[in-house]
Amino acid sequence: MSIESIIKSKVIEAIKVCYGQDIDDKTIQIQKTRREFEGDLTLVVFPFLRFSKKSPEDTANELGNFLKEKINCIEDFNVVKGFLNLLIDNTYWISVLNQAVATKNYGFKALEPGAKKVMIEYSSPNTNKPLHLGHIRNNLLGYSVAQILKANGYEVIKVNLVNDRGIHICKSMLAWLRFGGGETPESTGIKGDHLVGKYYVKFDQEYKKEMEALIAEGMDADEAKKQVSLLLEAQEMLRKWEAGDVEVVALWRKMNDWVLAGFDVTYAKMGVDFDKVYFESNTYKKGKAIVEKGLADGVLYQKDTGSVWANLEGDGLDHKLLLRDDGTSVYMTQDIGTAYERFNEFKIDEHIYVVGNEQNYHFQVLSLVLGKLGYEWHDKIQHLSYGMVELPEGKMKSREGTVVDADDLMDEMVNTARDTSNELGKLEGYSLEEAEDVYNKVAMGALKYFILKVDPKKNMMFNPKESIDFNGNTGPFIQYTYARIQSVLKKAIDSGMEIPDLASDKLEISVKESMLIQLIANYPNIITEAGDATSPAQVANYVYDLVKEYNQFYHDFPIAKEENVDLRFFRLVLSKQIGEIIKSGMSLLGIGVPERM
RNA sequence: GGUCCAGUAGCUCAGUUGGAUUAGAGCAAUAGCCUUCUAAGCUAUGGGUCCCAGGUUCGAAUCCUGGCUGGAUCACCA
After folding, report:
1. In the structure, how far is the CA atom of residue A450 from the C1' atom of nucleotide B70, in angstroms?
2. Which domains can be identified in chain A, with CATH numbers?
3. Which one, of A448, A437, A401, A502, lies nearest residue A198 by Cα?
């Protein structure tokens, strides 16, 4: 039982004994004592004044005396206004450290039979262009949230829904046919997704040229937009694809394969993966039967022209189209179908979609429509809605070339990491492979931490001109602290010292040391909270706080050089445990830690 | 126009289930600390009408109302 819950139960007892009142434990607020006051934990007594009918100071003193008497690890207390500051003794804190050390996968809940089953969909790229910075945020969030949910003891299924069909891919296909001269990834040495993306841009350029020509000939601008022959051809291509035209399908397959091979490389570099990949070319017709059944059941309605709609006015929204006049599916229809299949096939308890906040409306509607259709799990779909990544110039636009390409960005990060590392020259004795592994970890650590430390739901700013820092509140700073700890431990062992499994609990420890243990004690709560909030940022900020405190400790206290053996052992155990938590917390963010850097 | 989200230091961000007459980090700036466990570190200094105005109460960056600013969205697109 944690010290907080012990105190809470005793506070309830105290209020009962002293003031004859039963209180809810929600009225009990225990927080970390502020730095500038003496103590470890603080009880806020204001809520109890209406029971005690005494001044805040008197109430706090009464409660303080009661708690000190009843809880033996409370050494002393002091009162500042309505705040009761409790001093917890060293023995207790050291026992907390020892417990953490003795716990395998400290802070993680094990996967047990009957665990909650969660599916998380993320990435979901289009196959007409390479991944960019926006996708990076999506992928890192999806992967990290999956890790965090697993750490909370959930069974997690990661899925990707690849949008491999539609007018956008036809545009790339058409441009490639028209202007490509038979180029392939092999013939050009260009990564498949980038090659296809090049023709997506090419299409847009040629489209604009033709449109302007039409306008110059006197055509109305709105009309010209629709009459560009390239667009008409692309639309024709999509019709052929849907009709199963052999040539179009073969070209589609070839170019999609190029892109998917490219994505695999990017995913591997990013360090994300999936348990199952869906393709829209297989799922885009799904949901039609469900919608037709809804129509038959009278929960949906049909217009004269044939289209099928959901009336959401009762929920304060509009009408939503689910089947077109010609009976074909729209995106919403497909999502209805795939959600149904997933809940049925996997018996999942919850489904999280990692999708940008531009689709908030879509997911709101999806849940409502599923509810209308009578699926009781309609409220088990959760939209993990994240904010846009903005550049100083504003939003990224792929066709205007203002995107930050994912592959380029990652490569640049690795180059920067390599240069910095070589400048500092700390990897002497490492082989080329070992060194490259460190550069990669540091580069990706910097990028991932930069993105994940920001609250997912907020928009974030990325300035490509100012490369991501390696100092301060950054991934490399955290990795560095880990490497530092490993170095101390290694030197201690090399010089013949043993690092015991447990620290002696009869020691005088400093305020800084007890603060570090309190941070360690809080790690499990952080994992729970990050899981509830689906927010890797909470883990990131926690690890940063921990590391910042540790570096101050490291600077001010000898560890392996401490003369007092028990104290030295304690500090080695403490350092080792903090290293474990850094590694563990970073793994929740999908970030690796190097032994040296 | 309707709906949703955000607004905290020059910049990037924490802090938001209401708590300490003193709102935190990092970057950038300035000044220090490497014959001692990794200086990708540590220390110090300066930097704020927590968008504005009201309200709720012992107490508000945090909750409520109204406004301002920015973003997203409201397709027989995805």
Report:
1. 23
2. 3-88 (3.30.1360.70), 166-259 (no CATH), 288-328 (no CATH), 413-588 (1.10.730.10)
3. A401
